[in-house]
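Two quick folds needed for the group meeting slides. Do the first one here.
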Amino acid sequence: MNLHRRGTTAMITMALASLLVAACGTSPDGSRSGGGGSQTTLQIWDFSAEQVKFHKDVAAQFNKEHPNIKVEWRSITQADYMKTLPLAFQSNQAPDMFYWNATGLAQLMDQKWIRPLSPDGTVPADFTKRWPDGSFLEGINMQDGKTYGFPFSENLYWGSGYMFLNKEVFQQAGLDVNNPPKTWTDLKNACAQIKSKTKAECIAAPTKGVDMQRIWFGLISSVSTDEFFDFKTGKFDLTEPSQVKTFGFIQELKKAGYLAPGTNDKNFSRQQFAANQAGIFFDGTWMPSVWASQGFSSDKYVVAPRVDPDEGRTGAAGRGYDDNKYWVSSQTKNADAAWTFIQWMTDPDGYFVQQYYKNAFGTLSYVDNQKMVSDPALKQIMKIGGAPGYRVQLPVPLLKCPDIAKSKAYVNAMARNPEGEWEAMSEALVSGQSLATTGAAIVKQRQAALEEELKKEAAAGLKVSMDCYTFPDWEYTKDYTSDMYKG
């Protein structure tokens, strides 16, 4: 996301400023309004619109158990959130805790947005044992021995790359929803039948900005890697043959009229699917709760694996260590209250967890998901995601080169035109050009930035190089295991 975008109109700026004042709830002297003497007000921000009621219930229950702490949990639309949160930090009005997964630990620390989870920076063993071994790593959620983050969503089932089929549309088209398309050709054949026999669109595929990731991740993950960087070759890969071929297939679908027309965002496309106006939608683990909030229950659709190229699956979705999503703000004056809430929130048997699963919001990293998940759609997602080779552990440069924890080269390379890949895709989809052509500039820019910065850091004494980012022995369909790292 571009956190430094300029040229915002005065009207938008004023609206965001008003939102900040309303959200921050400060008293005339600038202190947090606690609403009652010694009561501390803990402000948490995110952009999960479908979880508003859940968060309200969570806040009420936490306050019941901790009367001296009042939680104000606010959700802002995602597009506004990506602008509002940086503005809040710039104006020294940031919340006490916030949700953020657009960048990782290194950039958050560089921006001075975060502080350790606990007041003194250390966390007890009875906290970290809630997670699988290896969940807390220097450079991922720890820095200089202090813990800054914790894995929230688990990384086997959670993520994009699932195909949702609308039962009513499939029935109208004379298709068997329990025999879903398995290959690219199957998908085109199903679309042809939906287009000829129903009034519905075949695929509700948002193509507006980053929302294009829905269909992109639903296809590319079966071809190579769902990252814009290939850890096998050590190169930004948008213009590589596998990526170009996959995007070419999306262009084929569009040309044939199998993608819903218009440049739509994810919300429009989701509603289109839920209104039986489209037969197929590609997205992630979070969708059962999104559709439930729209009154579209899981008995009205089926979850299927993503489709593979006709020649068979040659790639997999990646599993990483980047599921640290809730952070404590560097501007908080309520570090003790934040730490109390985090421990309560991550209690595997606590209220937050029980209600999270009751509402089918997804899968958590500190919980036995096989035991807790009851929603049939989520159960199917777990069955699909847990199949061997559907998601694989990505190589981690940090585990190969510990000094990567101090490097800013990759973060800075990704910060160059953050939405560049999606802009290249949008241009190619509109113009009909090859992705190899529209994506060339962003790939060249990122690769040069990464290599040049690594050379500077190495000259300054860090043990880093392009070798840290290159794993030639990795196969896209297999986990890169700990024994494969060279010491």
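Then this one, please, same format:
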Amino acid sequence: MLLVDDEPALLVALKQLARSLGHDPILARSGGEALELLEGVDAVVTDYAMPGMNGLELLEAIRHRDDSLPVIFLTAQGSERTAVRAMKAGAYDYVTKPFDVDELGAVLERALETRALRRSNRRLAAERNLGRAVIGESEAMKGVLSAIERLAPKDITVLVRGETGTGKELVAALLHAQSRRAAGPLVRFNCAAIPPELAEAELFGHSRGAFTGATQARRGFFAQADGGTLVLDEVGELPPSVQAKLLRALQEGEIQPVGAGRVERVDVRVVASTNRDLAASARAGQFREDLYYRLAVVEVVIPPLRDRPEDIPALAAEFGRRYAERFGMHDVRLSPELISELKRAPWPGNVRELENAVARMIALSGGGEIPASAFTHPRPAEVEGETEAPPSGTLTLREHLDAIERSMIASVLAEVAGNQSKAARNLGLSRSALIDRLKKYGLA
């Protein structure tokens, strides 16, 4: 709770009140000082009349940074016009001085409840936009989700770091979905998937005739993300020549398409992700140090799944629900013994490997409760110098095709109310072939 007033005696009284309510007060004697202390704050109590930046100017600056942060005004008796202006400008509430302790305490409690509700609503809206639940039962992931909620409304560059498969793309999507840019485009650029000689043209665009094969002008990923968020996956793989141009785009908000003599203005928030230690790469001269500091204004580090096994039951249940629905299966459950086995596995491929493993077990099951015997622990990596075995949870091509076929058959059967002859005709199968597949997939 941030308390802002230029009168030391009033600040002491507010501090004592906040502590009596069980809150952690932070004190500021001016609006400028308050703006430097906003990180992690859940409510602001501010006086109106202060030297320099007054309370209304502070409110405007706060709303520009985080419009979900409740601001409570302290106004002198007879200053109703000021209070009305504050409420119209977006203040949560106001209390007249000298304030009644119980009244201010009640307003503070309501403000904090409103803050929590706004965060919850923002998370639910983000989940609806993403079409998936966001799961984080462990303290480590609660910390990550809390950081996302605080950072999303702030239009700053964020670096998301974590091992492959930990969910960096989900964190980037959440940052966009909970930001003021949520209605704008979310554009992804995989820095590791583009040949170095094409990376600049893909990122910044190119004019017609800029190089062999450029038969027409093309907007790059930066221009496509204008007004929204650009996610730079595996940003550590960008070639040095492109790193310099990316730095300019971040610093100046300007890009220059390849072969074009003009500079374009863009309004883009950048979220970068990497599985590397970019700080170490910068120190070793493998990545531009100035670009690293520009990207890592704030770093969000996602812990590996092996360090948060308490997240596995909820993740596995969500994946089970999702793939059972996709494959047209009903009443599919992961047994408690299976969940225990999943919690004991090392998961070198993290959440992505867990998802693949659950999808594989669902696809190969006949429905009902899936036993622990359906799961094979991932094999450890082979000795150094030998090829590492692929994660055992990864679906093979045959398993993917079987899952698709099972889903189609289940869907057609539902459409014809279980009439096998009609289903066989609709699927282009003989009745005997359909019966064989029904037995194979546990649908008989």
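Slide caption for protein two: The chain has three domains: 2-120, 152-303, 307-440.
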